[in-house]
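1st attempt posting a full record on here, be nice pls
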Amino acid sequence: MSQRIAICSGKGGVGKTFTSISIALALSDLGRDVLLVDADLGLANAQLMLGISPELTIADYVEGNKTLLEVTNKVDDRLKLIPGASGDASLANLPLGALSDLYEEITSTFHDSYIVFDLAAGISNQNMHLLKLCDQRLVLFVDEPASIADSYGVLKLLHLSDKLDHTYLVPNQVKNAESGKKFYERMNHLCLSFLGKPVGFAGAINEDQAVKASIRQRTPINTSFPDSKAWYNVRTIATRIANEAGDTVFE
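the predicted structure (as tokens):
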């Protein structure tokens, strides 16, 4: 059975797509079959960071022109990508019923894979709908007031839908492991104080020049900077995702 992981952020520009790609690559590196879905349906950019130029996108499937497998791109032996479209408002505002159908088709077709959904930033109905459908949810945020406030907004909506379980925080661009854990504890305290419930911790990602360099080079960090702190952090998070799914991986 597939394991569905949604990666989101309250605001844009906090490294969500880079993190989604890197976690997908890390799960693949652990020997798992992985599908990465660029679920920022109208403003896709995962393919850019992976350095590939797909001829078909998810729009071709939604419009009925191609099958789901035909729009799926092979990245490596274990990782596949369903690319989103760019500048397509109709996809960005896909009705929730159609979005559910798309989700079911993806999860049934790739029923033995880890499926990583790279969501758009924010709390649109489409984003929240996909978040609720997935088995695990990762909320990425940085130490800025807007990011903290918007991430709390995501957590509040998940709590109101009784979906805070199996939701995990990922502080990004932290100085070190200790500051990342403290940053998480601050957000968790906020949840305990105002929502009355804790939120999990998947791990933090260090601020690392290797991240910026890999994005500029359009080369995944696992191949361009395999010894970087950020890649080590991502592998740790991927291991925890697998363990949470009951797929034991030893750190």
